[in-house]
């Protein structure tokens, strides 16, 4: 039975019913939360008595999902029994689903932020351990100038810091409540507004899914970063680079070749970046042609968000294990930046300090490199990590994560 069967005399064809049903079990706890808010509004307006509200407050938190209804909103109303017959006054599934989905997205954002912080802290531990371990820095995937492992890992941490900001933005976008918008134009019952910030325009309140797009964008950008880390780890763990070995708890074997140890975890993170980007593109395509206000197309907003949340949680947790157990080969890293030519820029800059124009210095050093007569200058402090060197940079990053980001 649907909530609207009074309007359509004959029952729905089974094929139609199957097609219409929402895959929204994950939304139930958030619909419960939003419905409790709505029930209190009805109580304030005198449309539920104290016992009816108490009933709703007792039944709702205990509700368990069962398949068979059109969506979780229907399930919830029907399980509420007599109070259920009153609960839908002054609301529609259109503001109801938007309210529940906003709570869902806000929660998914906090979950992502916490998991990002865990991965960042693990990277900071590793960056601290090898703050001053030299390694080659690359441009065009050609050895360029030496950097340190600490500096390289802090670059990954920077990406995660921006990801955190994107999830915070998506959470803020999801925060205002659409309750009161009804189907599209509010309700003559004029219920008191829900607590906290609310949306101003009732048509926008039921039609807007920008908060979900912002969440999917945050996930896509995060996965683009995880994919970049993944690509580097694939390279570092090849026999060709051999900068690192995968920990056994985060490596896979081959079903045929007994000797193999494969980086499937980081490859899957890289692969899932494509899927994450696809989810964002998919929902953008869903909303782009929709007239105001609600349209059933919007039911397609939830599966990609549910899947993005799951992938985000699983990928961050698995990568944390991998980063934690990664074994660096410091000898290989040092050997890879032992070629004095990686200090050619330093040599040119030493000439600049003596008054040689940079282009002349560049040409002189290039000639030496070509002739095989280049001699590295006396070791200059690596400027890249900034004042205080690599250790200070790690400490500063850790202070940020322990301070500002801990509050998130
Ligand atoms: N299951 C629907 C969705 O996810 C709930 C809203 C249905 N509203 C309606 N007017 N048919 O969007």
What does this structure look like?
With 408 residues, the protein is mainly alpha-helical. It has three domains: 5-87, Fumarase/aspartase (N-terminal domain) (Fumarase C, Chain B, domain 1); 100-336, Fumarase C, Chain A, domain 2, CATH 1.20.200; 339-380, no CATH class. It has helices spanning 14-20, 28-44, 50-59, 72-79, 81-87, 93-129, 149-174, 202-207, 210-236, 264-287, 302-325, 330-336, 344-353, 358-371, 389-402, and strands spanning 134-139, 142-148, 244-245, 327-328. The strands form two sheets. The chain has a two-stranded antiparallel ribbon. A two-stranded antiparallel ribbon has the order 3-4. A hairpin with a 2-residue loop joins strand 1 (134-139) and strand 2 (142-148). Helix 7 runs parallel beside helix 15, helix 9 (210-236) runs parallel beside helix 11 (302-325) and helix 10 (264-287) packs antiparallel against helix 11 (302-325).
């Amino acid at each position: 039975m649907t909530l609207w069967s009074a309007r359509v005399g004959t029952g729905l064809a089974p094929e139609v019913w199957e097609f219409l049903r929402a895959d929204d079990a994950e939304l139930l706890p958030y619909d419960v939360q939003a419905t409790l808010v709505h029930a209190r509004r009805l109580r304030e307006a005198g449309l539920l008595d104290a016992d009816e509200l108490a009933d709703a407050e007792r039944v709702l938190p205990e509700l368990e999902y069962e398949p068979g209804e059109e969506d979780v909103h229907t399930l919830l109303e029907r399980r509420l029994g007599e109070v259920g017959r009153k609960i839908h006054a002054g609301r529609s599934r259109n503001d109801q689903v938007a309210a529940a989905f906003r709570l869902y997205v806000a929660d998914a954002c906090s979950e992502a932020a916490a998991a990002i912080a865990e991965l960042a802290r693990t990277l900071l531990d590793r960056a601290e351990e090898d703050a001053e371990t030299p390694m080659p820095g690359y441009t065009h995937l050609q050895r360029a100038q030496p950097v340190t492992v600490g500096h390289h890992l802090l670059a990954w941490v920077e990406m995660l810091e921006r990801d955190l900001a994107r999830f915070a933005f998506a959470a803020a976008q999801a925060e205002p409540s659409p309750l009161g918008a009804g189907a599209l134009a509010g309700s003559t019952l004029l219920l008191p507004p829900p607590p906290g910030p609310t949306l101003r325009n009732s048509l926008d309140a039921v039609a807007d899914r920008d908060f979900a797009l912002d969440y999917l964008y945050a996930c896509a950008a995060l996965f683009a970063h995880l994919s970049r880390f993944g690509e580097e780890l694939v390279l570092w763990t090849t026999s060709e680079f051999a900068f690192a070995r995968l920990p056994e708890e985060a490596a896979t074997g081959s079903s045929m070749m007994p000797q193999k140890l494969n980086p499937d975890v980081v490859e899957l993170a890289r692969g899932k970046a494509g899927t994450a980007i696809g989810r964002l593109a998919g929902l953008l395509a869903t909303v782009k042609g929709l007239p105001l206000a609600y349209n059933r197309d919007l039911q397609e907003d939830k599966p990609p968000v549910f899947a993005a949340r799951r992938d985000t949680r699983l990928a961050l947790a698995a990568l944390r294990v991998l980063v934690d157990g990664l074994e660096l080969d410091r000898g290989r890293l040092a050997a890879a930046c032992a070629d004095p030519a990686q200090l050619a820029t330093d040599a040119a800059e030493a000439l600049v300090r003596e008054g040689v124009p940079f282009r002349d210095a560049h040409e002189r050093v290039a000639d030496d490199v070509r002739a095989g007569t280049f001699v590295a200058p006396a070791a200059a402090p690596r400027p890249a990590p900034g004042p205080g060197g690599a250790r200070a940079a790690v400490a500063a990053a850790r202070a940020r994560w322990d301070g500002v980001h801990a509050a998130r």
